[in-house]
């Protein structure tokens, strides 16, 4: 059971609802992918690489600044090579990526519960992204949805339905 965290602003609360909904939809795609489709391509990259890319970007953009990033020993065992290289240093399994979804959800809950009006109006924390922290969160959610859409379309072509989540994390 997750400890209830309450964002300080209505906007941060809305962002949390959309992060959780997007991550729930990504989780469903990952969980629904049959083993024999795990390595099939979504455009250029295998299904699992697209899912991994989505998660490490989500994770990375949730930190306060790019200088604060530290590799997670489970999710980035190769350090920056897992981020900078075209492919990560290891092949991730379905259970590992489902665990990463849970990790990103918890990180989003912690980060958005700490955001204030002041912090949301401040810089993104990433030199290449010249917008506010609030817009960074919207950018991050759009990125999750972009790749979740790719994964969901791929699954749909395999006759595997993906669902829509309006807001929040469905407990069922």
What is the name of the CATH superfamily?
dinb family like domain
By DSSP (H or I, 4+ residues per run), the number of helices equals 6
CATH architecture: Up-down Bundle
- Portion of residues within helices: 40-55%
Under CATH, the topology is which? Four Helix Bundle (Hemerythrin (Met), subunit A)
Ranges with pLDDT <50 over ≥5 residues? none
Distance N to C terminus: 13 Å
Give the radius of gyration.
Answer: 16 Å
Instruction: Please state roughly what percent of the residues sit in beta strands, choosing from under 5%, 5-15%, 15-25%, 25-35%, 35-45% or over 45%.
Output: under 5%
Q: What's the β-strand tally? A: 2
Structural class by SSE content = mainly alpha
Number of domains: 1
The main pleated sheet reads as:
2 strands, antiparallel
Strand order of the largest sheet: 1-2
* Large-scale geometry: globular
The pLDDT mean sits at 92
The level 1 CATH classification is Mainly Alpha
Q: What sequence of helices (H) and strands (E) makes up the elements?
A: HEEHHHHH
């Amino acid at each position: 059971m997750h400890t209830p965290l309450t964002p300080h602003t209505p906007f941060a609360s809305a962002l949390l609802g959309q992060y959780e909904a997007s991550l729930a939809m990504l989780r469903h795609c990952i969980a629904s992918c049959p083993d024999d489709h795990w390595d099939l391509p979504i455009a250029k990259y295998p299904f699992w690489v697209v899912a991994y890319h989505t998660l490490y970007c989500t994770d990375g953009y949730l930190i306060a600044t790019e200088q604060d990033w530290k590799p997670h020993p489970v999710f980035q065992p190769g350090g920056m090579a897992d981020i900078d290289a075209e492919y990560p240093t290891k092949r991730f399994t379905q259970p590992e990526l489902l665990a990463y979804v849970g990790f990103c959800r918890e990180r989003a809950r912690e980060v958005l519960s700490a955001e204030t009006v002041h912090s949301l109006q401040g810089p993104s924390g990433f030199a290449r992204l010249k917008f506010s922290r609030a817009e960074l969160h919207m950018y991050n959610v759009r990125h999750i949805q972009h790749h979740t859409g790719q994964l969901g379309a791929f699954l749909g072509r395999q006759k595997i339905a993906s669902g829509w989540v309006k807001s929040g994390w469905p407990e069922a």
